[in-house]
Amino acid sequence: MPTSRTTARTELRIEDPRALRALAHPARQRIISELYAGETLTATEAAKLVGLTPSATSYHLRALEKWGVAVRDAPGDDGRERPWRSAADSITVLPTAHRRAGLDASRTSVHAWLGDLEDGLERLTASVAQGREQGMTSRGRLWLTPDEERQLRERLGEAVADLRGRTRRDHPAGATPYDVFALILPADES
């Protein structure tokens, strides 16, 4: 059974457009997904996930460290590789980073993230085709004031935060991993 976190939740807020560009690399996106899901990974473990050599993966981990996204734990007494973990509980790229990075860099970053969403939708389709009743998609339109939109974002974040902290090494018996995507997108008003 996982231990419950009693510390305050932290959020890494990306404002620098150079950080946004650095995060857009597909291997880094995959590593970020794992680290911010609560996993702790060595460069060798991360390399297996992204299909690169441990050396190339170390380069990407150091780039994430440069932008404050990942941190290295102290090496153990056994001299093995040092594990990497997220620098915060969650990561948010602010609209200012997207604006200042420019349309092309912003689009590249968003499309890297959407690739993970497309992969997840493929897994959901396969799961449903096999008769499983897990996972969901939902779509609708809400007319919200700016304050209501902010409140909705906060409430969704709180619901997800309540279940964070579980990892592949530390989760309740019978738990399976789910990727959770929350999108609140401006609609076409025409």
Automatic annotation (TrEMBL):
Family matches, as Gene3D superfamilies: Winged helix-like DNA-binding domain superfamily/Winged helix DNA-binding domain (1.10.10.10)
InterPro entries assigned to the protein according to its UniProt record, in alphabetical order: ArsR-like_HTH, HTH_ArsR_DNA-bd_dom, WH-like_DNA-bd_sf, WH_DNA-bd_sf
Family annotation (CDD domains): HTH_ARSR
Family matches, as Pfam families: HTH_20 (PF12840)
A GO molecular-function annotation: DNA-binding transcription factor activity
Segments forming domain HTH arsR-type: 8-103
Protein name, UniProt field: HTH arsR-type domain-containing protein
